[in-house]
Design brief:
By secondary structure, the chain is an alpha+beta fold. It contains 9 helices and 18 strands. The radius of gyration is 26 Å and the shape is elongated.
């Protein structure tokens, strides 16, 4: 979200950056009664009970209306498939389940950047690329401050504009592309479950492009997402890429598409996300209302001074001129301070809703944004950054990138 009633790209990271904590252990997270236990954990962690109508039960009902979420079901009994559970480190609850081919060696789901290796095949996910397009005066403000804008383009055009140059560098040629409706439905269901402020349209689209390089075949599943309102669009994409030999390609591609189409979201995850988003929204409005009260008090004091000035004017014209000058200076100071306070409040609101915070690049001295939630950030000369809660972590310590990474100062 970019400001109250508008949304930003941080939601995409919320959807797709959770990781795996266990395999074939669905009996730990059954909907009845285990989902209630997860809600109790969330209540203990936040100090708030599950709001009436906003708990997992509400999302279970909605999931049933949409064909059933299926979360918490027994591990997949389909031949050659294995059920994986992804956990949300943000809320400490299971995020989703999906079934992948059993012969895949799946790793890294705890970071969301998961990979899979199998004989003659490997699978990887790329990090989300996010963009924004803003109209009106706000768009002019962003452009004047150096913000790059990019209007949304269709998944098919993303393939030609963004993916094709990278693939050509790797020696791949495009064979064809088509929608992937099964995966798209799953992505849309996850996006629909997220709480957002204001009126916005949430859209997910999925494209499958296929590439060839000698006896190697490549399938790229493009997960495209957009959150748009009347004068703002926040959109982006990430990819799940399967490379396989000619002989195993069709089987592995089918396993990947079937696996991505089995994603089952945990209603308790959405309940926790709703709870936190609403809490932040309430805190933002409370701060806004307090600021308005402070402004009213300032104006009341100002009016009282004006009456005092009028009485002083009747007594002495010279004293009146001195008092007016003093009041004018005080007014300008109040106005400037009020505007600065509101600007800081708006920036904090934007950061809170987007899940970001301000950071300063020590290489350039410029201010930017980073994903919130980490205690330490490192950035290299190319502007790439790493967030970590490990105080001992130092990316320069691997011996290959000494002094290339510097810590980024942040603003809470």
């Amino acid at each position: 979200m970019n400001r109250p009633a508008y949304l930003l790209i941080g939601l995409s990271a919320l959807l797709f950056s959770c990781g795996e904590t266990a395999e074939n252990t669905m009996d730990q997270y059954g909907q009845d009664p285990r989902i209630s236990e997860l809600e109790a954990r969330m209540a203990a962690m936040t100090g708030q009970p599950v709001p009436e109508g906003q708990g997992a039960g509400n999302w279970e009902q909605q999931g049933a209306m949409e064909g059933g979420s299926g979360f918490g079901q027994q591990p997949s009994t389909a031949a050659g498939m294995r059920t994986h559970t992804l956990n949300s480190s943000t809320y400490n609850v299971p995020f989703a389940q999906l079934d992948l081919p059993a012969h895949w060696n799946v790793q890294g789901m705890e970071t969301g950047d998961w990979t899979a290796i199998a004989p003659g095949a490997n699978v990887k996910n790329t990090k989300p690329a996010s963009f924004m397009m803003v109209g009106g005066q706000l768009g002019q403000f962003y452009r004047s401050n150096g913000q790059q804008m990019r209007a949304p383009v269709s998944p098919e055009h993303v393939v030609m504009q963004d993916l094709a140059p990278r693939m050509r560098q790797q020696g791949y040629e495009l064979v064809g592309q088509a929608p992937a409706p099964g995966v798209e439905q799953v992505d849309q269901r996850g996006m629909n479950g997220l709480y957002v402020t204001g009126q916005a349209q949430k859209t997910c689209k999925t494209n499958l492009s296929e590439w060839r390089r000698g006896d190697k075949r490549l399938a790229v599943v493009l997960h495209w997402f957009s959150i748009s309102s009347a004068d703002m669009a926040n959109w982006g994409y990430y990819t799940t890429e399967l490379e396989a030999t000619e002989g195993s390609y069709e089987r592995e591609k089918s396993g990947l598409l079937n696996g991505l189409s089995t994603m089952r979201y945990n209603p308790s995850y959405f309940a926790a996300q709703h709870r936190q988003a609403k809490q932040k929204e309430q805190e933002s409005w409370a701060a806004h209302n307090q600021q308005m009260q402070n402004n009213q008090q300032s104006w009341n004091a100002h009016n009282a001074r004006m009456r005092s000035n009028q009485a002083a004017f009747d007594a002495s014209q010279a004293a009146h001129r001195d008092m007016v000058n003093s009041v004018n200076n005080s007014q300008m100071s109040i106005y400037n301070n009020t505007n600065a306070t509101m600007d800081r409040m708006q920036d904090a609101t934007i950061n809170g809703i987007r899940g970001e915070q301000n950071a300063w690049n020590p290489h350039t001295g410029e201010q930017g944004k980073v994903e919130a939630g980490y205690n330490n950030y490192w950035v290299n000369g190319d502007g790439q950054y790493i967030g970590t809660n490990d105080v001992m972590y130092d990316p320069n310590a691997n011996g290959q990138s000494v002094d290339q990474w510097q810590q980024m100062p942040t603003e809470p």
